[in-house]
Each structure stands twice: as C-alpha cells, then as structure tokens.
Design a protein that fits this description.
With 109 residues, the protein is mainly beta.
C-alpha cells in the first residue's frame, strides 16, 4: 500500500517535498517511480529510483526535482524546487502496478 502526502498550493519558484509512505514491502529494495497527471491530461512519468539507488528524471524536471528514500521510515520522497505553474498536477508514487491515491500540487500566484 502507498500513501502520498505533502502536496498543496505554492507560488511559482517555491518548493514542496512529497512523501510516499509504503507498507507491505521495503522501499529501499524496490524500484519505485513518481508520476503526475495534470488536469485533462494523461499521466506522465517524473522520476525513478532503482533498488540499488540509481535515479533518473524526466527532462522537464531535471535539476529541479530530487527523488530519495528513507529506509527507517520506509518512505519515498520527491523534493521539488523552482516550481512552475506547469508542474500543477496530481502526483502519485508507484511500485510496479501498485499506485497510491496521489497528492495534489498547485503552483499559482
């Protein structure tokens, strides 16, 4: 099970940290991804972290977002900096075909 949190309303240029708390499996040994879905659009991949800690990012978030995990808390994170209005979306984490309910990020002045 995956529970995302940390979304909210933020001004352009601001930051947010999303969390994805996991239960039933170990985050630190799993390949996990962040996706997002903007209003009226399909889901798009944002970032990935593999079981050995390798990371990768979509071009539109590279150098602004950072994916990480905390073994003790069994939680996946997405640190989002320099947010833009086009980052507005429902963000959710996935492990395989299992996804959380998502957390809404709204970037607006």
């Amino acid at each position: 099970q995956l529970q995302a949190s940390g979304g909210g309303l933020v001004q352009p240029g601001g930051s947010l940290r999303l969390s994805c708390a996991a239960s039933g499996f170990t985050v630190s040994t799993s390949l996990m991804t962040w996706f997002r879905q903007a209003p009226g659009k399909g889901p798009e991949w944002v970032s990935i972290i593999t079981s050995n800690g390798a990371t990768n990012y979509a071009a539109f978030v590279k150098d602004r977002f950072t994916i990480s995990r905390d073994s003790a808390k069994n939680t996946l994170y997405l640190q989002m900096n320099s947010l833009k209005p086009e980052d507005t979306a429902l963000y959710f984490c996935k492990k395989g075909t299992t996804r959380g309910q998502g957390t809404l990020v709204t970037v607006s002045s």
